Amino acid sequence: MLHRPYGNNGRTISSIAVQLDDARGDVSYETWRARVRTAILQGVTAFEVVTASKALAEALGVEVAPFDQAGFVVSWRLRAAGRSAITGLDIADAVDQALDWTGLSSLDILMLEGDVYKALEPTAWDVLESLARTGGFERLGIVGGESAADLCLSDRRFTALKTFYGIGDNQVLRRKIIEASRLDTIVLARAYFGSLAEADAPRSLLSEIKDLLGFGASTLHDHATALDFLKTTPGWTAEDLNLACLLTDPVITAAVIETIDAEAIARLSRSIERELPKSIFAHLEIARTAGALLDSRKSGRKQVR
Fold it and tell me: What CATH code is carried by the domain that includes residue 52?
């Protein structure tokens, strides 16, 4: 497993971070221990906890406990869960529970979803600032696209970003991420993972343009064609090549994958150690150019609603 710099403090992080999610709370403690241990044995040192159960959190804590905590990065997501207002007590309870369940002395990243950020009451900010001073968490993060990157640039309380970032789309977002990374912002990018239908382009590569800029499917055809190399490069699967291409961008701290399958993690880890064919860099430039042409803010073309 290759490692990358984690901020400007000398720490490193595995190039691949694994997302842990127990939204239904129906996975046992023993199963979560086995899953986390498998990831660690494959060299993973970064975990993003999206929806935590007690079993998941305790298993994660037990498996990382034998190691130096400075060698691991744990990002913990706070979700609104339908609440229209998030108080200081809500924040304190959530962080206390995370630390109690995991046994960690501090969270590396406390990651807020957009709905949480919008619902924060003044007392919540007071508690967040107090927790940051006392070591409850090291970095405050935000989940989202361009608006989240803007927040990291304008409000330096936010020093971490989780975003959906494709290798060939939304160059506006890429420029903002580059600016944020220069300010010591951690950037976790969701990596595409999953089987591709024969005629489909990877969904995460187009999601920013489709979801944030509102383009219709017909408008995306030319861009999808520019991404055909992901499916036609000999000796590479689309997901392996997408991950390897994503991590050619030095502003990405780690790519987050949504699988905990040992064989898949091992294969993806090997893919980022392989030398990319020289033609791939030309394909990347073509894909980025095609993506930029779809962005009405640069090309002046009307958005399709």
Answer: 3.20.20.100
Cα separation, 94 vs 302, in Å, equals 44
Beta bridge partners of 161: 142, 187
pLDDT digits (tens, 9 = 90+) for 187-233: 999 875 444 333 333 344 344 334 433 444 444 444 567 778 888 89
- With a CB cutoff of 8 Å and minimum separation 6, the contacts of 266 are 42
Partners of residue 119 on adjacent β-strands: none
Task: Count Cβ neighbours within 10 Å for each residue of 257-289 and write b for 16 or more, e otherwise.
Answer: bebbeeeebeebbebbeeebeeebeebbeebbe
| pLDDT at residue 74 tops 50 | yes
Q: Which amino acid is it at 271?
A: S
Q: What is the DSSP track for 111-180?
A: EEPHHHHHHB-HHHHHHHHHHHHHTSEEEEEEE-SHHHHHHHHH-TTEEEEEEE--TTS-HHHHHHHHHH
Q: Does residue 207 fall inside a structural domain? A: no
Phi-psi region of 228 (alpha: psi -120 to 50; beta: other; left: phi over 0): alpha
Q: Specify the pTM.
A: 0.83
Which pairing describes strands 186-190 and 158-164: parallel, antiparallel, or unpaired?
parallel
Q: Give the span between the Cα atoms of 167 and 291, in whole angstroms.
A: 9
Closest of 218, 179, 223 to residue 205, by C-alpha: 223
Task: Report pLDDT digits (tens) over 155-193.
Answer: 999 999 999 877 776 678 888 999 999 999 999 998 754
- 137: containing domain: 3-196+238-275
Distance CA 216, CA 198 (A): 20
Position 121 in a domain:
yes
Distance CA 73, CA 3 (A): 12
Residue 217 domain-assigned (yes or no): no
State the chain's mean pLDDT as an integer: 84
